[in-house]
Amino acid sequence: MRVSVSWLREYVDLPADLTAEQLEDALTNLGIEVESIVDQGATVQGTLAVGRVLTIEELKGFKKPIRFCTVDVGKANGTGDPQEIVCGATNFVEGDLVAVILPGGVLPGGFEIGARKTYGRMSNGMICSARELGVSDDHSGILVLDPESGAQPGEDARPYVGLNDIIVHVEPTPDRGYQMSVRGLARELAHAFDVPFTDPGLAKAPKGSTRGKPPWPVTVVDQVGCDRFAARLVTGLDPNAQSPEWMQRRLVTAGIRTLGLAIDVTNYIMLELGQPMHAFDAKRIKGGLVVRRATAGEVLVTLDGVRRRLSEEDMVICDDTGPISLAAVMGGETSEIIPGTTTDVLLEAAHWDPTMVSRTARRHNLFSEAAKRWERGVDRELALVAIERAVRILVEYGGGTPSKQILDLNYPTPIPSITLNSEEVSRLVGIPYPTSLVAELLTKVGCTVTNESPEGSQEGGAILTVTPPSWRPDLLRPADLVEEVVRLDGYTKVPSALPIAPPGAGLTAAQRRRRSVGRALAEMGYVEVLPPPFVSADSLRKLGRSTDAVRLANPLSDEEPYMRTTLLPGLLATLRRNIGRGNRDVALYELGLVFLPTDAGPPPVLDVSRRPTDEEWEQAKAAVPAQPWHVATVAAGEWERSGWWGPGRAYDWADAIQTGREVLLVAGVRPESISVTAADTMPWHPGRCAALRVDGIVVGHAGELHPAVCAEFTVPKRTCALELDLSAVPLPGLTPAPKLSNFPAALIDVALVVPSEVPAVDVERSIVDGIGPLLESIRLFDVYTGAQVGEGRKSLAYKLVLRAPDRTLTAEEAVAARDAAVALAAQRHGAVLRGT
Q1: Antiparallel, parallel or unpaired: β 527-528 and 586-593
Q2: What is the DSSP letter of 414?
Q3: Residue 399: other Cβ atoms inside 10 A
Q4: pLDDT tens digits for range 311-325
Q5: Number of Cα atoms under 13 Å in the Cβ half of residue 97
Q6: Distance between CA atoms of 461 and 436, rounded to whole angstroms?
Q7: How do residues 222-235 score in pLDDT, each as one tens digit?
Q8: Residues near 836 by beta carbon (within 8 Å), at least 6 away in sequence
C-alpha cells in the first residue's frame, strides 16, 4: 500500500521535523515491512518552475492544434527572458499559471526534456500535464494552477502541483488487514511516536434502520457469509462531475486509476478507512437485491469483462435478472457505473466472511484491492461511517441528493474474550513485564482489559480478561496478545541472547557409512550427481523393471509421474546429456532413496482433533512406501587415460564389479563376507553381470548394460553400471584394530589350473581357507587360457603374502602353507598346480 505522509498527518500528529529515516525505523519496529519511502519532489529532476503564459500563437497547417507560447519563468532560466515553448494542449489561455520544466530536466519514467526544433519553431522546455508530472491520471490538458495559490513566475512549482509530499510504500503482513488503510497506519504511528490519534472510524454517522421503507429492498439469505449489509441511495448526481484534484492525486499515489466521481469515492474510502465499498447504477438494477450463495453453474460477467462460472461457495448479490456482483471481490457489468451517464447511485458497505472471500478470489484468480482487505479482516463497525463519508463527498462534488433512509441489516456476533496470565508475557519474551504495563499496552491497541485476579494477589501473575477491538480480528489467542505487548513496547528492548545449543550425538552409523561411500567413490574418479527422483513408466520398461511403482497424485510433470524404484534412469539420462555435450569419458554416481510400493493400501483418514490410536498409526506407517538407500554408478569411455605414455583402457564390467567390492569394504563389510557370482538379470548383459552378496544375501548387481538398454537410453555401447542396496548391508559393529607383525613376510606365487566354469572367487576362497591365519593378502594377477592348459580349462595365478605374528616363517613353513591351499583347491574344484 502506498500513502502520502500528508494524508497520515490528517489523523495523527506526527512530528513536524519527521525524517524519512525516522519514519522507516518506526514502521519497521512495529513489524511493518517498508518497501520504499520516496520524496515526490525528487521524482522530477531538474528545474520545474511556475510560469505565466504571456502570448499564444496558433500554428496553422497541422492535423492537430499546435500552439507556440512564450512563458514568463522569472529567473528560473538564468536570464529572465520569456521561454519559448511549443505545446499541443488548448485548455489554457494567456495569463494562466502553469508548471514548466526547463531543458535538462527529467520527468517521471525517465522522460528527458531538451531544447529542440519542432513544427518549425524552437521549443525550450515543456508545459506539463498532471499525468506527465505523475500526480494524477488526467491528461486531457495542461495542469493550470490556481490563481489564488499565490504562486509567482520562477518559483519552484513542486509545492503547487502536489510534489512536496513523501510517499510511503508498505507491505502489511497477511494477518494485519487493518494496516491496509490510512486509519490503521496512522493508529500504528501514533503508538510509535506516542502522539494523539484521531480515529476517522469513530466519526458520527446516522444510524441505519430496518424499519420503514428502505432506500432499496435487500434480503440477506446467507447471514454467515454476510453478517452486515448497509446501503444508501444518492440520486440526481451530475454524471459529468469530476473527482477533486486532491482525491485524484491520492488515488494515483496509491496506484489506483481514477474512473469517475462515484467509483473514485468508494476507492478513496477503502484507502482511508479500510472499508471496501461498491457503487451500483441504481437505474440498471432490476427489482430488489438478494445476498446469497451462488448456484453451481451460474454465470456472471465481472467488471473486467471476464465471463465467470460461479461455484456454490461464492457469495453473490443478485437482482431479478440474477447475479450482478461477485460479493466482496468485483462487481458485474450489468450494474456498472458509467461515467457521463449514471445519475443515481446505490452505495453498499457490507461485512463479508474472510474465508469465503479468500477462497473465491483464489478460485477465480481475482485478487482485487477489496478482496485483499476482506481476506485479512475488516472492521465490521465501519459500514455506516463509510457510507456517511462517501455520501458527503458525492453530494459536495456531484450535487446529488441522499435518501433519508439508511438500510442496515446487522447480524452481530459477540467478540470472544481472551484470558491472559500477565506472567505469560514475561515467560515467552524473556524479560519482565509488569501487569500494569501489559494492561496499558493492550488498552492502547484498543482492547478492553479487565483484571480478574483477587485484589492483593501476587502469586502466578494477574489473570486478565481481554476483549479485542472490532478492527483487530487477528487477536484470537493469548500468544497474539503477547506479540502485541512486545511489539508496542519495542522489539529493540528484547535482548538478542542465543540459547545454549544442546550437545549433539554426532552422525549416526548410517550417515557415517553413506559419507564414507560417497567419499570413496569420489576418490576412485566418479562424480556425484543428483537427478530428480521422478521417472516415467517407459524408462522402467526400458530397464526391464516392473512398472508397479508409487504414482504421485500431483506430479511436477505428467511425463514422469512415478517415484523411482532404481537409481539408474536418472544416472543414464545424466550420462547421455554429458556425452551429448562433448564429454567422452564419464563416470557418475548417486547416493539416494528409492521408493518401493506397498500392498497395505491407502493410509487411513486421521482425525486432526485427537491423537491417532496405535492401530491407526500402524496402518498409516504401513501405507508409507519403503524407502531404502541405494548407491549406483554408470560409466563409459576410458577409465585409464591414453596419452604419450601409451594406450589407455576402457571402463569395463570388471571395473564395475570391483567398484562394488570397494563400496562394500568401505561400508564396513568384512572381506570374507563378500562374494561375487555370475548373474543374469536386466538391465545387465547376461554374460557380463555379477551379483554381489554379503553373507550369501544378494545386495546388488554390477556389470555391462544390455545392448538393447544402451540403445534405448542412447548411451554408448558397453556402458557399465552398478547398483547396491545399502540398506540391506548390515551396519558394522566395532572394528578391532589389526594386529601388526614386525616380522618379515614370505612372498609366494601360485598358479592353479581349474575347469573354465569355476569362478576365480571360489578358488580364492579355497586358498584362503587352506592357508589359514598365516595369509595376510591374496591377489589374482593373471588369467590364462590356451593350449598349454588344455581345452575347457584356465590358469589362475595369485600372489600370496604370508606372515606370522611371532616369528619369521621358514621356507618349509611357507611351502607347507601353499601346499595345504593347493590340496584344498584340488579337493573342492579339481585344481592342479600348474607346471606339475
Answers
A1: parallel
A2: P
A3: 12
A4: 999 999 999 999 999
A5: 19
A6: 11
A7: 999 999 999 999 99
A8: none
